[in-house]
Design goal:
With 265 residues, the protein is mostly helical. The protein starts with a helix and ends with a helix.
């Protein structure tokens, strides 16, 4: 139980770090700290920030650095407690990829460019996905297919709200809106990943997996949504994800009912 809670907490912290990074960029604080890394622009030679914008960037770096500790602990404990091979490899992959994200974070400050920015956000999506899968696989022996269906159902309202807050669709994509939008999508992605792992019906798993992959892609593309075509493409993509999630829950429920009827007869 301790390991499962550690894995789940690590996944949540990775997601929080992502949302904090999104707020940092949306608030225009990504290039503060006088474009220095890892130091900032305040007292003690830049160890601390000098103003509010640089504090945002400084705090994001602090949280990102602190995230490495539970990531390391999860990877170590997955081997020490003899977790399943999927859990061990997924948690180890998170630990191996994390330094790449640190380097990308430094490059966004010292060598600002579109390619670096894209990689800097795509990598955390991968880290969040692997962290969530680590937790889902760790909990798998203790949950049922019904729990997987509930995870899919829980993702539905998150997806509906995220669709309404899509980049430059119905509302102005301000910094708070960006934080809420991406937080909703991350929550939906977590639910879909859990559903894909916990459901025991093959079709339901396929629908949840397809929704997870498309959600991850939308998270990445949504950070750089230029032009009306891309904006509407994201909305259509979210509608498709909603449909996949609904089908996963529907098929999973039908499968559970059929199994109960078979067992009763």
């Amino acid at each position: 139980m301790r390991f499962r809670r550690l894995a789940a907490g690590t996944a949540v912290l990775v997601g929080v770090t992502m949302v904090l990074g999104i707020f940092t960029a949306a608030a225009g604080a990504g290039l503060t700290c006088q474009m220095r890394w890892p130091l900032c622009d305040g007292p003690l030679g830049g160890l601390f920030p000098a103003n509010w914008p640089s504090f945002i960037e400084w705090f994001h770096r602090l949280v990102a650095g602190a995230t490495g500790l539970p990531v390391l602990a999860t990877a170590i404990q997955s081997w020490r407690t003899d977790q399943s091979s999927r859990v061990r490899y997924a948690s180890t992959a998170v630990l191996a990829i994390l330094p790449i994200q640190v380097v990308l974070g430094a490059l966004t400050v010292t060598q600002y460019g579109i390619a670096v920015l894209f990689a800097h956000f795509a990598t955390p999506v991968l880290l969040f996905t692997l962290s969530t899968l680590t937790a889902a696989w760790a909990y798998e022996p203790r949950v049922s297919a019904v729990t997987g269906r509930r995870a899919a159902l829980l993702a539905l309202p998150f997806l509906a709200l995220a669709t309404l807050l899509s980049p430059r669709f119905l509302v102005t994509f301000t910094a708070p809106i960006q934080v809420v939008y991406n937080g909703l999508l991350l929550a939906a992605l977590a639910g879909l990943l859990a559903a894909a792992v916990w459901m025991d019906d093959e079709r339901a798993t396929q629908f949840a997996t397809a929704g997870s992959l498309l959600s991850a892609a939308i998270l990445i593309v949504g950070r750089r949504a230029y032009g009306d075509a891309v904006v509407y493409l994201i909305v259509v993509g979210l509608v498709v994800v909603f449909g996949c999630t609904l089908l996963a829950a529907r098929v999973g429920d039908t499968s559970s009912v059929s199994r109960r009827l078979t067992e009763t007869s």
